[in-house]
């Protein structure tokens, strides 16, 4: 009987331990379910974060791409504002770099926007660029014509031709850099070629205005001096015209680097 009671005590202890083990297993199972739940949620959150980071990176790249494209339009607007400014000077140090930026903007827009929009953009810019011709005309006329057409400044034909070339050549450094910019771009854009043609015509008109009276006076003088010697008249006339043509070509090269058929 004592043995039975002793064994019953062990059985009760074993039942208690078994109950504790079962309770522990239930707790472990509950913990495992909670762990799996948290792990699943954590994984989902991690994937969502990675997706958000990816989308953020794509949005940043897209924003930078848009900003880069908009920079050409913003730069064009700034250039347009400067071209409209009454204080703009084509002889300023910043004008040529601004012109290079304008070329980049036009090149980009021409490859990324519709033809009609490009025409409007170009039209606005070229209307400003035609002001170069006006500047060229003012430079030549103010620097040369008003003084050279003063009769008191030209005592005779020889002095007249010397004055016409020396004074006219003095205006070359003020416009040559600007003309070179037009010449460099004239082969790529027809609008620049049009501006260059107008500058050529303006130059030739000024030369004709200045030289016309003196050439006519010299021809009349040669005719009166050799009215009976036609051979001498031809020789003198040809020598005079060769001298004028050579001087004109040399003077032209002081202003321009590219030839023009209008000079022939």
From TrEMBL:
Domain Conserved oligomeric Golgi complex subunit 3 N-terminal: 3-115
Record Pfam families: COG3_C, COG3_N
Chief localisation class: Golgi
Membrane topology type: Peripheral membrane protein
A GO-annotated cellular component: Golgi transport complex
Annotated Conserved oligomeric Golgi complex subunit 3 C-terminal domain residues: 162-260
Coiled-coil annotated residue ranges, if any: 14-69
Protein localization: Golgi apparatus membrane
Domain of life of the source: Eukaryota
InterPro entries named among the record's database cross-references: COG3_C, COG3_N, COG_su3
Keywords from the UniProt entry: Coiled coil, Golgi apparatus, Membrane, Protein transport, Transport
GO biological process: Golgi organization; intra-Golgi vesicle-mediated transport; intracellular protein transport
Listed PANTHER family: CONSERVED OLIGOMERIC GOLGI COMPLEX COMPONENT 3, CONSERVED OLIGOMERIC GOLGI COMPLEX SUBUNIT 3
Stated family: Belongs to the COG3 family.
Protein name per the record: Conserved oligomeric Golgi complex subunit 3
Organism the protein comes from: Pycnonotus jocosus (Red-whiskered bulbul)
Lineage: Eukaryota, Metazoa, Chordata, Craniata, Vertebrata
């Amino acid at each position: 009987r004592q043995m039975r009671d002793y064994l019953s005590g062990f059985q009760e202890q074993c039942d208690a331990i078994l109950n504790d083990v079962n309770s522990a297993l239930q707790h472990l199972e509950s913990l495992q379910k909670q762990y799996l739940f948290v792990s699943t949620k954590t994984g989902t959150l991690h994937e969502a974060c990675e997706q958000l980071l990816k989308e953020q990176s794509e949005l940043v790249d897209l924003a930078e791409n848009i900003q880069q494209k908009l920079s050409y339009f913003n730069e064009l607007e700034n250039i347009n504002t400067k071209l409209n400014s009454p204080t703009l000077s084509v002889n300023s140090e910043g004008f040529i770099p601004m012109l290079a930026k304008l070329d980049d903007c036009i090149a980009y827009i021409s490859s990324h926007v519709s033809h009609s929009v490009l025409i409007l953009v170009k039209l606005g810019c070229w209307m400003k660029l035609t002001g170069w011709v006006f500047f060229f005309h003012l430079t030549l006329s103010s620097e040369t014509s008003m003084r050279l057409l003063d009769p008191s400044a030209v005592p005779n034909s020889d002095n007249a031709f010397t004055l016409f070339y020396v004074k006219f050549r003095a205006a070359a450094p003020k416009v040559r850099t600007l003309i070179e910019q037009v010449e460099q771009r004239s082969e790529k854009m027809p609008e620049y070629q049009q501006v260059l043609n107008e500058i050529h015509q303006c130059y030739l008109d000024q030369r004709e205005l200045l030289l016309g009276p003196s050439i006519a006076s010299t021809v009349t003088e040669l005719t009166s001096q050799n009215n009976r010697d036609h051979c001498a008249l031809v020789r003198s006339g040809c020598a005079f015209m060769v001298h004028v043509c050579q001087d004109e070509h040399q003077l032209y090269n002081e202003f321009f680097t590219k030839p023009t058929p209008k000079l022939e």
